[in-house]
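input
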Amino acid sequence: PEDISRIKKTILFRINKTDLIDSKTISILYRQAQYLFKAKEYDFVIENWNKIIKKANWKSDSVKYFGDLYDDLAQAYFEVGKYEEGFKVLTDGMNISKNNFKNLYYVEAYNNFLSHRSIIQLINNQSDKIVKENFKLLEEHVEYLISLSDDDKQKLKKIDNSYFLDVIMMVTILDMLESKSRSASHYPLMSIN
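output
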């Protein structure tokens, strides 16, 4: 409890210290999330990660933490049962990412948001329409990842070495739920190449 109080004070001080939060500060704040989640400080994360996201300088190295901060915020919403808000955070993150694909950190973030949104919606028995929409987006993303240059694929692998496997796994799961499903090995075989 005392450590959590200190962590919360540090976070609030850093957030309120400046109008634009730099990557060094975001790195420090991001690393504190694990302690806040262990202490079930979800409301604190929701309130303050929203502020961090709005004040972050995403044009700097902070972009490395873009996906992590949005994922943490969505997770906090899910933990308190605010599923619609969590889905909105992931969808907003996907839209921002999609509009910034020139930066591979956004490609990786989009991959994570889409995979997380898909699995959470699947677990929560969302409509077939939503599952099909996620499947279509995942298929399109797989095609995009395949179309990347070899150089970009290597750079993306340095950002997250399992990025392609994650999206292949999720699209395979959703493909098996389709009435006209391909062979269960269709997408996994793509990952071999």
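quick obs: The mean pLDDT is 87.
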